[in-house]
Amino acid sequence: MTQDTILDLITDGLVTIVTCAAPPLLMGLAVGVIVSVFQAVTSIQEPTLAFVPKILAVLLSLILFGPFMLTTLTEYFQRLISNLPGLLAPK
To answer: Of 17, 27, 46, 74, which is the most buried if we count CB atoms within 10 A?
Structure first.
């Protein structure tokens, strides 16, 4: 296994991680910003007001983007397993 092969595996894995983690994180970020602006405008400083909408938004995004995330992870592992004999063969 060469350094280029290892770097390609790491890069592909990191891209897959970012692709799968982005939807819930971005949804939580967007809801967090909206709630923060709402709290600043109305001067309401209730801590639970910040957490509950973000948790619900992340759960909603997991429901909406779950099939996409599962497909992405499944394709990544299928590529990894199909290339495994070539990766382990001594050169």
So the answer is: 27
